[in-house]
Design goal:
The protein has one domain: Outer membrane efflux proteins (OEP). 58% of the residues lie in helices and 11% in strands. The protein starts with a helix and ends in an 18-residue tail after the last helix. β2 and β3 form a beta hairpin. α6 packs parallel to α10. Strands 1, 2, 3, 4 and 5 form a 5-stranded antiparallel sheet that branches. Its main location: membrane.
Length: 493
């Protein structure tokens, strides 16, 4: 038995691997971000380590994010998927070691008359027959595959990489969730601002309708002035109803992301209040930071798993050596069960080598290579997609500040123009049409400014998400941290 144990240990430790060595592919994108008129000059050589609290600095938004990290159902699904992948890996890894089973039993048999017995486990039935009883206790190894060619080890490596892949997918889910909550919170703020604009415009238009009706009744204003004033009022009332619905739907969307009711005290009152609380994340110069994005990490672990499966497919072309061993005791009387004379053992090695499979083995290798090529293309596409997303966000970041500044100036000018036009109309100097045009221009400028402020704030959220680094979210991961050495452990847990 000692010899058998030594043989098993030597063959398990000495198993080779037929998987091709893994080499990370070169980045299929330029080494730095685009430059030009649409982009800001980047001064940082590398992307710093940040947390969502560094980007979302409003304590109310931080509280909502923390609540979502506990209650969001997508995160619970991701955590369950990690548990499934971890268990699958442990199941596959267990095949590296033999399964040892123990059994014990008692057997009672009756023989016809004429039978004889010489042990104390035999007795007469009183009707010409005898009964024989025997006890047994065994421990053994059942069909343990000696992994000489690394088939099981390659499958274990593939399972381990898919475990890490699932954990990376969970981190991608967390990162997306935080970004979605930030966007939803800002969208709620912008709709609250639009609601306030619609309320103010409706109130102002109502006063204009009253004034115009009074002037019409006094014979000073024509009926067309009243009709035009009513058009502005009903338009504002329609927008008011629409924005009331939008605010309610924004809250519903935010509660779905959080997975629980939200305290109204945590909600912003306007985009002017919420937008300045989102900080800018410097993108750095090196596009290699994309390799830390969770979705890119996930795609690379799938590539590693597919690479390992090539080794398993190659090993399937070679013979499989299995070992079955049994050692135990058997005796009639229980008292002599564990004596030296009751000991017995058996060892049965076997070799299985398929002679004819109609090319299925080589087709399996070709299939695994093709799956590796698919994983490689998917990995490269993930990097290219990430590069495009970051480049788009940087292009928007490079111009949005100028657009917001111009829109603020336009809104200020429209406000002054409306104030003067309304005063001239009330003084009988200008026609109502001029005042009406000024009011419409102000309303449009105010709404456009809110939309621009929302775009500027959500652009910062987009940069946080597409650059893909948040050390706090990585720390909350329930699975293992990504590692580059994917050699399967040999112990049992």
């Amino acid at each position: 038995m000692r010899t058998i144990a030594l043989l098993l240990g030597a063959t398990s430790l000495g198993a080779c691997s037929l998987a091709p060595p893994y080499v990370r592919p070169d980045l299929p994108v330029p080494p730095s971000w685009p430059v030009g008129d649409a982009y800001l000059a980047q001064s940082e050589a590398a992307l710093p380590s940040v947390t969502y609290r560094d980007i979302f600095r409003d304590p109310r938004l931080q509280a909502i994010i923390e609540q979502a990290l506990v209650n969001n159902r997508d995160l619970r699904v991701a955590a369950a998927n990690i548990a499934v992948a971890r268990a699958t890996y442990h199941i596959q890894r267990a095949e590296l070691l033999p399964e040892v089973d123990a059994s014990g039993g008692y057997r009672l048999a009756r023989t016809a008359s004429g039978g004889s017995s010489s042990n104390s486990g035999t007795g007469s039935t009183g009707n010409g027959g005898t009964t024989n009883g025997s006890f047994s206790a065994d421990i053994g190894i059942t069909s343990f595959e000696i992994d000489l060619f690394g088939r099981i080890r390659s499958l274990t490596t593939a399972a381990q990489n898919r475990y890490f892949e699932t954990e990376a997918a969970a981190r991608a889910t967390r990162l997306t969730l935080v970004g979605d909550i930030g966007t939803a919170w800002l969208t709620y703020a912008s709709d609250k601002s639009l609601l306030k604009i619609a309320q103010d415009t409706a109130a102002s238009a109502g006063e204009s309708v009253k004034l115009t009706k009074a002037r019409l009744d006094g014979g000073v204003a024509p009926g067309t002035d009243l009709a035009q004033a009513q058009i502005v009022l009903t338009t504002a009332q329609s927008d008011l109803a629409q924005q009331t619905t939008a605010v309610a739907q924004d809250l519903n969307a935010l509660q779905l992301l959080v997975g629980a009711p939200i305290d109204p005290a945590l909600l912003p009152a306007s985009i002017e209040e919420a937008a300045p609380t989102v900080a800018a994340l410097p993108a750095g110069l090196d596009s290699g930071v994309l390799l830390r994005r969770p979705d890119v990490v996930q795609a690379e672990y799938e590539l590693r798993a597919a690479n390992a499966e090539i080794g398993a497919a190659r090993a399937a072309l070679f013979p499989r050596i299995s070992l079955t061993a049994l050692a135990g005791f058997a005796s009639g009387p229980l008292g002599s069960l564990f004596t030296g004379g009751a000991f017995n053992y058996s060892v049965a090695p076997s070799v299985n080598y398929p002679i004819f499979r109609a090319g299925a083995g080589r087709a399996g290798v070709q299939q695994s290579r093709a799956q590796r090529d698919v994983a490689l293309a998917t990995y490269e596409k993930a990097i290219q997609t990430a590069f495009r997303e970051v480049s788009d966000a940087l292009a928007r970041r490079g111009t949005i500040a100028a657009q917001t500044s111009a829109q603020r100036a336009l809104t200020a000018a429209a406000t002054n123009n409306y104030r003067l036009s309304d005063a001239r109309y009330r003084g009988g100097i200008d026609t109502f049409l001029q005042s009406l045009d000024a009011q419409r221009s102000l309303y449009s400028a105010q709404r456009t400014l809110v939309a621009t402020q929302l775009t500027e704030a959500t652009n910062l959220v987009t940069l946080y998400r597409v650059l893909g680094g948040d050390s706090m979210l990585d720390a909350t991961a329930s699975g293992p941290k990504p590692v580059r050495d994917t050699a399967a452990p040999t112990g049992n847990r």
